[in-house]
Amino acid sequence: MNDATIDQSLSDLVIERVGFGIFVLDRDMNVLMWNRFMQDHSGQPAETVVGKSIFASFPELPRVWLSRKVESVFQLGSFAFSSWEQRPYLFKFDHDRPITGGVDYMQQDCTFMPLTRGREVVAVCVTISDVTHVSVMQREREDALEKLQEYANLDGLTGIANRRFFEGRLRDEFLRWQRYGGEMSVLLFDLDHFKDINDRFGHAVGDTVLRVMAQRVSDAVRIQDTFGRFGGEEFALLLPCTPLADAMLVAEKIRMTIGDTPVEAEGVRVPVTASVGGAAARPGLPSYEVLINEADAALYSAKRQGRNRSVALADA
Fold this sequence. Notes:
- It holds the Pfam family PAS.
- InterPro entries: Diguanylate_Cyclase, GGDEF_dom, Nucleotide_cyclase, PAS, PAS-like_dom_sf, PAS_fold, Rev_trsase/Diguanyl_cyclase.
- GO terms for molecular function: diguanylate cyclase activity.
- It comes from Trinickia dinghuensis.
- By secondary structure, the protein is an alpha+beta fold.
- The chain is built from eleven helices and twelve strands.
- The chain has helices at 3-17, 36-42, 46-49, 54-57, 63-76, 132-152, 163-180, 194-201, 203-220, 244-259, 288-304, and strands at residues 21-25, 31-34, 80-82, 108-117, 120-130, 184-191, 226-231, 234-240, 263-265, 268-270, 274-280, 310-312.
- The strands form three sheets. Strands 2-1-5-4-3 form a five-stranded antiparallel sheet. A five-stranded mixed sheet has the order 7-8-6-11-12, with helices on both faces. It has a two-stranded antiparallel ribbon with strand order 9-10.
- Strand 4 (108-117) and strand 5 (120-130) form a beta hairpin.
- Helix 9 packs across helix 10.
- It is elongated, with a radius of gyration of 33 Å.
């Protein structure tokens, strides 16, 4: 056996044993070579695939996309690549990841390489790399980051928006209002005599009261509204596209939602009421901070007037 024969045998062995798919196509999309990886994962041996159109053996392949990809390599004579992020897979091969990985088929990177004789491209070699593990890890990382971002926007006790997220939404909505006009209102409210609840029943009961109250209000507001905890027993509600008169109707609804039914916690029934202050954006308002301050002034007016009531800025 001469050196050339040995080299060819080694080359053939490597192609058969490598851990990725290799197949070769001519310009008519006929298969010229099909390695062991492709055979094992497709279930079709080389003798049933080679010499036929790739689409005859695998009619489910994206015919237009794959034909254009191969033709571009023939025309340009340069490499082409397709990532799993652009197209998750070319072949519907099974993967060895747990079902909980969230992918149906093996995720694949594909490389298209011109095979030349002189300056002429005579065939295109396509490689299929199994990147399922990489794709699953990236998806898990993205999901984790998304959850972290979500948690960063939520109040730890009540599960509603925290103050940082609320003010960000208010700032964005205020800028939209400044640019396009319309209506926008803000309500601030807190629970009356909440310190007495903590002192009388304990902080565990107080925390339950806050959680129950937050859930009640969340169930009562619109999906386009933003409901957040400002701190302690103080809460805020952003009402886009809402004039002050309508906002005060919402304020009354919230006040009754909170106060109509005592909160049951730790074996006791705790009566709860709330005071609400409202303000609306108007021409000349310099910033969203001023809007918050005006709603806050209305809230304190409600408290001065005896609590358990709603007060608008105009009435403060």
